[in-house]
Specification:
Rossmann fold; 3 domains; 6 strands; 7% strand
């Protein structure tokens, strides 16, 4: 196939990718955006397959069959609550693929530009792969979600980074010594692990976003190695969008982007106040009947979902409750924190799946000014994103992170299994506040009981 036609197909793919990003910017066009992105990838793959100098079609077909089977199983078996760690794992696989492809493309005589791209692919890809595995382990509970800290970690990371870069310069100067590439990969792999282990579970959504950006940059570098335009374009799109999202999330959490890049942001050696000091004799439990009476006398209700809603698969029950409350002439809105759950947009996806109109999903900055005029704030499984310590304790892991100020509502009802801490590992004074009632139990079960009570009144 003539190279001009191949590049024309790649250009069409790139245009489809751009329109896919535009479609994904809004829930109403997200499905169409996904279809455009998939079509663009199909065009790119087809153009590559009909081009010359490719592996035999038998191997390609085998890869398609195996990959499709694994993808289908993951799509059917992985629950929505496990989607963040799956995204993290897929980011890592993208980085690992870049490392292997760039490594296989090494030759005895390598131009400087290609050598530089190979080094970039090896370093970024290895950091992405191993960093993503650590992030997956933290989210899956295989690795402690608490920050693993040690003195001098930033110096060690700097030393490893400079070593990888120094070896990269040596590889460009002496391209014939291909073993140097795998030494670079090994050093970068250690760096990837050490960059993510000091980061606590509460900050994992930002880490996943950053690693997603890294996987795109690794793919773009591999595109230069292979002289593949569509890989350069698609990798650059992913890398740029990922870093933009990471920056937005850092602002939402009041974290400097530089701290995310070097690892260990949000980590602290300070020991938080004990839960017994905060909760002792102050927590007031309630019942669905009592909460139902609160709703009967309310004019405005704000529902704040969190990871507990995802775990309990309670999004459909939340929708039914909201509809029932609205049928009684009560105003209902949803307050969505940008990092609620374990990945960006986690709550938005769950609530959209339940058919809740997007217009009812209010961002943190939109809902906070009206909380003082809110009669009931219903918190469904959220913890760190409504923790007042972020405003009052400069030494806690979430210090300075903007939160949804549900404590300013007239009455707060928190549905939660227990008083256990969130990902940040700190107690929440909201649970012991004078205007807070705790409805202990599984989110879905408690919501269904509350719906039954309201239907009877």
């Amino acid at each position: 196939m003539p190279s001009a036609l191949v590049n024309l197909a790649y250009l069409a793919s790139a245009i489809l990718f751009v329109f896919a990003f535009k479609g994904l910017a809004h829930p109403r066009t997200a499905v169409r955006g996904n279809m455009l992105g998939a079509t663009g990838m199909l065009v790119a793959v087809a153009a590559t397959l009909v081009n010359e100098q490719i592996v035999s079609f038998e191997i390609i077909l085998a890869g398609i069959v195996v990959g499709s089977a694994v993808g289908a199983i993951l799509a059917l078996k992985v629950r929505m609550t496990a989607m963040p760690q799956l995204v993290g794992l897929l980011n890592g696989l993208g980085g690992g693929a870049s490392v292997l492809v760039a490594g296989s493309a090494l030759s005895a005589i390598m131009p400087t530009t290609t050598g530089t791209a190979t080094v970039a692919s090896g370093i970024i890809g290895a950091v992405t792969f191993w960093g993503s595995l650590v992030a997956f382990g933290k989210l899956q509970g295989l690795v402690s979600e608490k920050p693993i800290l040690y003195k001098g970690r930033h110096f060690v990371n700097l030393l490893l980074g400079l070593s990888a870069l120094g070896l990269g310069v040596w590889l460009v100067i002496e391209p014939g010594v291909t073993s140097t590439y795998w030494i670079i990969v090994a050093v970068s792999s250690v760096l990837g692990v050490l960059l993510v282990t000091p980061i606590g579970g509460a900050d994992m959504p930002v880490v996943i976003s950053l690693l997603n950006s890294y996987s795109g940059l690794a793919a773009a570098a591999t595109g230069f190695v292979l002289d593949n335009n569509v890989l350069i374009i698609s990798g650059s799109l992913v890398g740029a969008s990922g870093i933009i999202l990471t920056n937005l999330m850092c602002k939402a959490m009041n974290r400097p982007l530089t701290n995310v890049l070097v690892g260990g942001f949000g980590a602290t050696l300070q020991k938080p106040a004990g839960a017994e000091d905060i909760y002792a004799g102050k927590v007031k439990s309630t019942s669905p009947e009592e909460v139902g009476m609160l709703f009967e006398g309310a004019r405005r209700v704000v529902i704040v979902p969190g990871y507990g809603m995802a775990v309990g698969q309670a999004q459909h029950a939340v929708r039914d409750l909201a509809n029932l409350i609205e049928s009684k002439g009560i105003e209902v809105e949803f307050g969505i924190h940008p990092v609620a759950g374990r990945m960006p947009g986690h709550m938005n996806v769950l609530l959209a799946e339940a058919g809740i109109p997007y217009e009812k999903l209010k961002e943190m900055d939109q809902v906070n000014p009206d909380l003082e005029q809110t009669d009931v704030a219903l918190v469904v499984g959220a913890n760190d994103v409504v923790n007042p310590l972020a405003r009052t304790d400069p030494k806690c892991p979430i210090a300075g992170m903007p939160i949804i100020n549900v404590d300013k509502a007239k009455t707060v009802v928190v549905i939660k299994r227990s008083l256990s801490p969130g990902f940040a590992g700190i107690p929440n004074p909201l649970f012991a506040a004078g205007n807070t009632l705790m409805l202990f139990g599984d989110a879905r079960k408690m919501l269904l009981e509350l719906i039954s009570v309201l239907k009877e009144t």
